[in-house]
Design goal:
There is one protein chain. By secondary structure, the chain is α/β, with parallel strands linked by helices. It folds into two domains: 167 residues, Rossmann fold, CATH 3.40.50; 86 residues, no CATH class. Helix 7 runs parallel beside helix 12. The protein starts with a helix and ends with a helix.
Amino acid sequence: MQRPVTDLTEHLKRYNDAVLIVGSKALQRVLPEEQQEDPDFIKKEPLFFQPGENSMNIFSRKTMIKNPNMFWKFYDQIIMKNPEESTNTYNKIKELIDMNLIKSVIDFNTDGTLSNIKSEYTPMRGNRNVLQCVKCKETFYTPDVNLDVDKPILCCDLNGGSCKGKVKPTIPFYGEKYSTEDTSKIFHDIFTYDEEDKPTGLNTHTLILIGPNFTEDLLDEIITGFNQFRPQQPDTFSVFITDNDDLFMNDYAADFGTTYDIEESLTKLINALKE
């Protein structure tokens, strides 16, 4: 039996402690106008690496040190200049956050659009617009950095200081695990822990996922753990706002879910909360 949306809106207003996960499927690729008009545009653009080369090997710590020219060209052309965007969806997400019903946001995207929100914010995949020194941890705004280099970028090259630590993207290399610190933080946002740091229950009454990529092992661990503790804390809801993953919603026993346009779904939820 489908529950009325008022059950969800009243629940969110009652507890004001929802955890929001913004998945990679919340974004849509928005091509520049010239690419939209010319489907062969990308074929005409010269590539700096030959077809067949493994991009997973290019975007690696080893390549950043051994072949910085290739590494930073890849970062510049493929990551910085070929972003995924969904401005309208993000505006709706921000509007939802501004309603003060969400205590923390976990972002699996790299654009940094949500970095200035009022809620606690954890960018699990970093921010493509931010580079960081591996030694002193100073950060640099990517568009201000010359990426056309033949040697590793050092901190002292950018700030004129004495630190000779290498500067790297804040987004993980291919195959690199998420930060232990960030992973611990988001789990403590969602779960309560005992003195031995073992999970004992839920630290939120609502788990909301927008555009989740259900192939993410970390997401599976979060949702499975959330469902595991729900029998002990029955006044909890899970909400999946996706565009096509109804099978996963059934598998994970979501209380509320949508499988059509994400932006439209957010608009309907926000309007219901305003009533």
